[in-house]
């Protein structure tokens, strides 16, 4: 099949089809396993450079709650600024004017709305995080590789996982 | 000398394919999904000479060496032209995985260009996921794996079909 002359066309081999089917089944299996394992999002975890820097409760929906426990009805935005080797958070709500980003400072702006969590803006070179679809359920994440930022929705992290699934 | 010119042409062609690909918004909101058009050149070079390499031998056949050269240069050049140093590293990681998988797939002599191209597409994505895991130090990206396997299979198969159509022209050209 391989060492052909030009008159004979290369044909798709049986191994090709088998490969495609095996990969498809494997991907589907993996997807199903992930779905079964995933739960309603309990909290939104923001990690930077491999360490968790913020954890928000999603009990009242995707708009989240700040650490002081204040909830809101409006869409919320979170600016994350990277400066002097650290990360800083600035929150504002829909309708408010966005705080100005100082010149020369890298940032990501997260949007927490009714329909989920998404990246509203960022100054990273690839903009992959900004084009990412909104995340809604446990295990899903948005990653900004250039800024080494991970925004992840986590399900309940209890030992007895069954309770979380039944609810 | 003639071969140098031909490889130069193929390098130029793969650069154009890189550029065309950067213009097509084809991501479906999931990072890492792309057509992989430049891989067509790698695929064609791997198949241009009938020598697919021997099993259990470390010797790289001529087509594989040329493919490695053209693709390496393509990534560095397109990286500096259209993106940044950072993207070059990701592209190189994906390309290394993809190339190794295609080389081994070709050596088994069981797959056609379609199967080898599927292997290339899937392993390109797996290579990039692994690098992403290292960079952000998280397993959260594992969530994408099923989507990227399916995407790699579909785009790989499409490129393989195109490759089958193009290969006879490339081979005929070299005989004259």
How many extended strands of chain B? 0
- Helix fraction bin of chain A: 10-25%
Q: What structural category characterises the helix and strand content of chain A?
A: alpha+beta
Within the largest sheet of chain A, what's the order of strands? 2-1-8-7
Determine the CATH topology of chain A: mini-chromosome maintenance (MCM) complex, domain 2
Q: What average pLDDT do the residues of chain B reach?
A: 86
Largest sheet of chain B: none
Helix run count of chain B: 6
Q: What helical percentage do the residues of chain B reach?
A: over 70%
CATH class of chain A: Mainly Beta
**Domain tally of chain B:** 1
Short description:
The complex is a heterodimer of chains A (167) and B (176). With 167 residues, chain A is α+β, with helices and mostly antiparallel strands.
Molecular structure report:
The complex is a heterodimer of chains A (167) and B (176). Chain A has 167 residues and is α+β, with helices and mostly antiparallel strands. Chain A has a single domain, classed as mini-chromosome maintenance (MCM) complex, domain 2. Chain A has three helices and eight strands. Chain A is globular. Residues 1-7 and 158-167 of chain A have low confidence and may be disordered. The longest helix of chain B is centred in the C-terminal third of the chain and has 31 residues, at 145-175. Chain B is an all-alpha fold. Chain B has helices at residues 2-23, 39-48, 62-82, 85-108, 113-136, 145-175. Chain B has six helices and no strands. Chain B has one domain (2-24, 35-175). Chain B is globular and about 45 Å long. The A-B interface holds A 1-4, 6, 9-13, 15-16, 19-20, 23-24, 26-28, 30-31, 34, 47, 49-50, 125-126, 128-129, 131-133, 139-141, 143, 145-146, 148-150, 152 and B 27-31, 50, 52, 83-84, 86-87, 90, 108-115, 118-119, 122, 132, 135-138, 140-141, 143, 145-147, 149-150, 152-153, 157, 160, 164, 167-168, 171-172.
């Amino acid at each position: 099949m391989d060492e052909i002359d030009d008159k004979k066309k290369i044909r798709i081999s049986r191994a090709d089809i088998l490969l495609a089917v095996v990969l498809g089944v494997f991907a589907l299996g993996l997807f199903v396993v992930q779905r079964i394992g995933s739960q309603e999002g309990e909290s939104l975890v923001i990690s930077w450079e491999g360490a968790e820097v913020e954890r928000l409760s999603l009990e009242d929906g995707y708009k989240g709650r700040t650490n002081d426990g204040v909830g809101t009805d409006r869409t919320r935005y979170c600016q994350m600024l990277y400066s002097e080797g650290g990360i800083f958070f600035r929150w504002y709500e829909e309708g408010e004017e966005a705080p100005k980003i100082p010149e020369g400072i890298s940032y990501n702006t997260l949007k927490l709305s009714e329909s989920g969590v998404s990246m509203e803006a960022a100054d990273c070179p690839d903009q992959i995080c900004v084009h990412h679809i909104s995340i809604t359920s446990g295990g899903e994440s948005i990653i900004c590789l250039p800024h080494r930022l991970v925004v992840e929705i986590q399900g309940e992290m209890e030992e007895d996982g069954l309770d979380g699934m039944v609810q | 000398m003639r071969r140098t010119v031909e490889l130069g042409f193929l390098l130029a062609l793969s650069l154009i394919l890189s550029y065309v690909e950067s213009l097509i918004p084809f991501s479906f909101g999931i990072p890492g999904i792309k057509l992989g058009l430049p891989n067509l050149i790698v695929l064609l070079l791997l198949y241009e000479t009938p020598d697919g390499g021997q099993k259990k031998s470390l010797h790289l056949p001529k087509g594989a060496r040329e493919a490695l050269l053209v693709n390496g240069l393509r990534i560095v050049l397109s990286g500096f032209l259209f993106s940044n140093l950072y993207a070059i590293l990701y592209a190189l990681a994906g390309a290394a995985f993809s190339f190794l998988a295609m080389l081994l797939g070709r050596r088994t002599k069981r797959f056609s260009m379609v199967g080898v191209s599927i292997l290339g597409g899937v392993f390109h994505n797996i290579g990039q996921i692994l690098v992403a895991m290292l960079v952000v130090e998280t397993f959260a990206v594992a969530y994408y794996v099923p989507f990227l396997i399916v995407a790699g299979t579909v785009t790989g198969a499409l490129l393989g079909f195109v490759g089958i159509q193009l290969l006879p022209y490339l081979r005929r050209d070299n005989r004259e």
